[in-house]
Each structure stands twice: as structure tokens, then as C-alpha cells.
Amino acid sequence: MRIRTVRARFTALYGVVFFLSGAVLLAIAGGVALSPTRVSTVAPGPEPAPAGSALTQAQTQIAWLQRQLTEQQAANTRQLLAGAAIALAVMAVVSIVLGRVIAGHVLRPLRTITAATRRITADNLHERLAVPGPADEVKDLADTIDELLERLEDSFAAQRRFVADASHELRTPLTTMRAALDVAMAKPEPAPPRTVVLADRLRTELDEIDRLLEGLLALARAQHGELPDRTTVSLAGLVSESVAARAPDIAARGLTVHEALGGDLPVRGSRALLGRMVENIIDNAIRHNHDRGWIRVATADDGGTGHLVVETGGEILDPRQVAGLARPFRRLGADRTGTGDGTGLGLSIVAAVATAHGGALDLRARPDGGLRVAVSLPLAVAVPA
């Protein structure tokens, strides 16, 4: 069995080192205990030799005593080695347990660093590990990760500022171009038919670019967490308003809308961004649908969390492609999603707004065909007056 964790490797290392050191100690002790003992005898001085029978009895008694002493020494040695072996086995188990405890204590700061690093994502790069303790290798690692997070935060912030600034700067030439086009078309003399067609096409393209810039601005604000106008709004109310405002588009495509709105679902946040989130979900359901299709809109309260679920029918979609729709400029092919127009920012804005409000977006391809868009948001305490 392969040992995968550092703690298990440390435990095995501590146990093996202790066991080997104990085995060497036991071998040395056993070698000393089993080494032959030299017995020196002192020859007695010249004395009268005792009678033959008495000498034989004495020699026999001495030999018996020597055998008894040798057997006793061997028994003591075996008992000593057995006790040492049992002690070694017990201490091996104890060393493994203590090794695991010590390894866990040594690796505890690393587990803390790992858990904290996993919690930090692109949406909370401002958090830091801030590991306390002496200036050792673990603290050096934590400080290095904090420095990396700081650089990442600066990079993400610079990217979001660039998107916002670029979107703002591009609005001025777009406004100038639209004004120049309107002035040219407003001249008293009638314009040629081709010029009128070209002007209409330019207006359409300018409107599309304007929607793209507006989407980039909303995405940048949501990703940057800019919620200056926090208030308590009704999520169900936003859904009803968005569906009612798009009644002409729904009727134009012959779509059937099934609404199941449960309660007001008060949500604390930016009304503008939350409204944009709901509008993008409804627009996505209308745009990427079949003529005479259906839309199912439902809201529910799940123990302090509000859920908005919008489902549409259609062809069976690839779940792998659906999972990437929350990223900017990701769209499915026009042959699979109806008209195929749009900027590709709708669901990415939904995901960013939901995250900025402490919620999440869940996209799933329906088994029977079509798309399921679900947003979960934490509910506020009270509904606005």
C-alpha cells in the first residue's frame, strides 16, 4: 500500500527509526548478556588430601552447583531478552502513535495554510493567511503565499480598472459617431436608398457595441464588488417586472411562460445589478429558444436562501459546453440556441452579480433538452417598505 500523506510518511519514519534503534540496543544488550563469563579458580595450598570418598562427593557437589548456576544464568538471560523484546514491541506501537501525534502537530500549520488557500478565490483575493509564529520555514511559506496573493489582487484589480476605463473611454467616440450619423441623415435633401440602408446598419452595429460596453461595465462593477446603492429588493418583484417588460418579445416568438413565484424573497444588494442579473436571465431564455417554445420561471425560499430557476426547452446540449457559458464571450452555436445573437456577456454578468451578493450561479443542460439556469442568493431580513 502506497503511503500518500506527509503525516503518514513522518509516522512511518519515526516508527522505523525508533524500532531500529531499539533493535540495535537490544542486540547489544543481548550480546553482552550472552557473552561467556570467565570463572577463575584459585588453587588451594598444599593440604592433606581428604579421603577418596569425600573428594569424590565434593567434586560431584561442585559440578552440580556449576550446572545449576549455568542453567539459572541461561534462564535469566532468556527472561531478560523476552522482556526486552516485549518492551521493544510495546514501544514500537507507542512510537507509532506518538509519531503520528507529533507529525500532526508539526504539520498543523501546513494544514491551516492549505485550508486558507483553498478558501481564497478570485473574488476574495484581499484575504491573507497571516500565519503567526516564529520566523521558520512554515512562516516563510505563508508569507510567500501572501505576497503572491497580493500580486494577484493587484493584477486582477488592474484588469478590472482597465475594462471599466476602456468602456468609459469608448463611449465618447461612439456617441460622436451616432450624432454625426443622425446629423447626416437629418439633412433636408433626401439621402440615396443605399445610404439609408447603410445608416440603419451602422446604427444597429453602434447599438450592439453600446450594449457590449454596457455589459463590460456591469461585469467590471460586479467583479470589483462595487455595490454603492445597497438596499433590500424583492427578487420575485424583479422577476415579475422583467417578464412583463419583455411581453412583446415573448409574444413575437410565440413563447409560453409558466411562472411559479413563491413569496417576495427579499435580497440585500444593488438594485441596478440585481435587476440586470434577472434581465439577462430572462433575455437569455427568450433569445436562445425556439419559436413557440416555453419558459418556466420559478422562485423559492430554502431556509434563508432564495432561489431563482429559469428553464427552457430545446435541443439536447453538451454539458461541458454549458458549464463554460458563465465565462465572458462564451456562446453555444447559433444552430443550437435559436437566434445566436448577443454579446456573450449575459451569463457571465449573472455569475459575477450573484457572486458579488454572496450567491452562486448553476448552469445545467436539461436531460430532455434545453437549459436550466439557477441562481441562489442569501435572503435579507425584511422586505423594503
Characterise this structure.
The protein has 385 residues and is an alpha+beta fold. Among the domains are: 137-224, Signal transduction histidine kinase, dimerisation/phosphotransfer (DHp) domain (Helix Hairpins); 230-378, Heat Shock Protein 90. The chain contains nine helices and seven strands, in the order ααααβααββαββααββ. The chain has helices spanning 6-34, 52-119, 137-185, 193-224, 235-245, 247-252, 271-287, 319-323, 346-356, and strands at residues 230-234, 256-261, 266-270, 294-301, 305-312, 360-365, 371-378. A five-stranded mixed beta sheet has the order 2-4-5-7-6. The protein is elongated, with a radius of gyration of 42 Å. The two termini are 64 Å apart. The model is unreliable at 38-49 and 334-340 (pLDDT under 50).
Keywords:
9 helices; single chain; Heat Shock Protein 90; alpha+beta; 7 strands; 385 residues; 5-stranded mixed β-sheet; Helix Hairpins
What is the overall shape?
Answer: elongated
CATH topology of the domain at 230-378: Heat Shock Protein 90
Query: How many E strands?
Result: 7
- CATH class bucket of the domain at 230-378: Alpha Beta
Question: How are the elements arranged and paired?
Answer:
Blueprint: H1 6-34, H2 52-119, H3 137-185, H4 193-224, E1 230-234, H5 235-245, H6 247-252, E2 256-261, E3 266-270, H7 271-287, E4 294-301, E5 305-312, H8 319-323, H9 346-356, E6 360-365, E7 371-378
Parallel strand pairs: 2-4
Antiparallel strand pairs: 1-3, 4-5, 5-7, 6-7
Helix pairs in contact: 1-2, 3-4, 4-9, 5-7, 7-9
